[in-house]
Amino acid sequence: MPQFSYHAVDKAGRTSDGTMAAESEHALERRLREVGFWLIEARPLTAKKRTAKNFKVPRRELVEFFTGSTSLLLSGIPIAETITAMAQETTHLHLKVVLENISLSVQAGTEVSESFRAYPGVFSDQVCNLIRAGEQGGNLATTFEDLAHHLEWVEGIVADVRQASIYPVSIIAAVAGLIGLMFTVVVPKFAEIFVDLGIELPALTRAVLTFGEVAQTYWWAFLLSIAGVVMGIKFLTRTQPKVALLLDQLRLNMPVFGDLYSMLLQSQFVHTLALMLKSGVPILDALTLSRGVSKSPVLDAAIKDAVASVEEGHKISEALRAHPVIASLTLRMIIVGEDAGRLDITLQQVADRFDKEIPRKLKKVFATLEPMITLTLVVIVGLVAASLFMPMFTLMSGLR
After folding, report:
1. Cα 354–Cα 355–Cα 357 angle in degrees, nearest 5
2. pTM greater than 0.85 (yes/no)
């Protein structure tokens, strides 16, 4: 159904600006009249404009919205009044505007899921399809509760990663700053002293001094090169699927981090699929909607094969077996769930296991990373110090 951007006003002179789905501009005007608003201006929106118009809302705000909405819905309050109440409660201005527009759209007769779908920058396709399943099944309260738990889990994982990475990132920043200071200030000073003394320099000292001169003269080129490499990789991953797939495979095969990355991907997959199946989304639709949730080309290829397998009448596990991104234990649990006809429950059990294992894995990974960073710092500082003191020892030996 087409989406329209509208500007309307009610009897009290209050204006409303938002988006609403309608068959035509006349249908939009009729819907707004039914809820006490007069249409002033309306413009059809393309998909690109709809996405660009939407606001970005922190995940924590969405958790609070779905949690509060669950309580109101369970109390018997209609969905439109629930959304209006949550719009009044939230302190996030962008979310307040979005919820007020959604409430008005629902009051005008638009389906709840379609009203949410008008804001893809705030509510993803996954969320909107779950809301649609709950709407059709008459259990919106349960769906909102499940969405709150799911978003809370995602927020927890992000918080764990952020917390665990504070110390390593601080150490890396300190190391980078120290190295930059040494090669732009300390090393050039020693180079002047050695030139004045006119002594023969060891190979290590010459290499360090040369690197120091280059770093002092072309430091901007180093920064531009790093920025260019990062931007180039991002561009290639967006435009070249094969490059994106190769880089994703490299991430999965990385020492230390590869296992953690694999666990995070599997956890996202089983959480999403379990949530959709529990909400009554058909298995084929649930698998299709799970694609792209993790932004991993490797996992996306595995899910794509699983969709094709189900379309041909086969089991999900038959397609996933060929993809190493799905661990053997996860695969065995999926097989058990399929055979028992309770895949949603089995997937939730797998998700619960990952919820316990991932925080432990995070701590283990970063505990391994810290001594590696410290050792790197010691080696670099030691080499530079040795290169600077070796000529001095040679000079002192000659004086004796």
Report:
1. 55
2. no
Q: Which residues contact 46 (CB under 8 A, 6 or more apart)?
A: none
Query: Which letter, b or e, does each residue of 165-198 get, where b requires 16 or more Cβ atoms within 10 Å of its Cβ?
Result: eeebeebeeebeeeeeebbeeebeebbeebeeee
76: how many CB neighbours lie within 10 A of its CB?
7
- 98, 116 contact by CB (below 8 A): no
Q: Is 313 exposed, middle or buried (0-12, 13-18, 19+ CB in 10 A)?
A: exposed
Question: pLDDT at residue 352 above 60?
Answer: yes
Structure confidence by residue, pLDDT tens digits, 261-314: 899 888 888 888 888 888 778 888 888 877 767 778 999 888 888 888 888 888
Contact yes or no for 280/133 (Cβ under 8 A): yes
Contacts 24+ apart (CB under 8 A), 330-335: 330/266, 330/270
What pLDDT, on a 0 to 100 scale, did the predictor assign at position 397?
Answer: 64
Choose between 25 and 309: higher pLDDT. 309
How would you class 52 by CB atoms within 10 Å of its CB: exposed for 0-12, middle for 13-18, buried for 19 or more?
Answer: exposed
Token pair for 112: 């709840």
Q: Cα(101)–Cα(107) distance, rounded to whole angstroms?
A: 10
DSSP 17: E
- Of 120, 190, 140, 95, nearest to 384 by C-alpha is 190
Report DSSP letters for 32-53, one per residue: HHHTTEEEEEEEEE-HHHHHHH
The dihedral formed by the CA atoms of 98, 73, 111 and 294, expressed in degrees to the nearest 10:
70
Q: What is the DSSP letter of 183?
A: I
Q: Within a 10 A sphere around the Cβ of 309, how many other Cβ atoms?
A: 19
Q: How many CB atoms lie within 10 A of CB 63?
A: 19
Q: Which of 158, 102, 157 is nearest to 131 (CA)?
A: 102
pLDDT above 60 for 64 = yes
Separation CA 393–CA 314 (nearest Å) = 75
DSSP 21: E
The 10s digit of each residue's pLDDT in 171-191 is: 778 777 877 777 777 777 777
User: How much is the mean pLDDT over the chain?
Assistant: 81
Separation between Cα atoms, residue 68 and residue 52, nearest integer Å: 28
- How far apart CA 41 and CA 6 sit, in angstroms, is 6
CB 11 within 8 A of CB 37: no
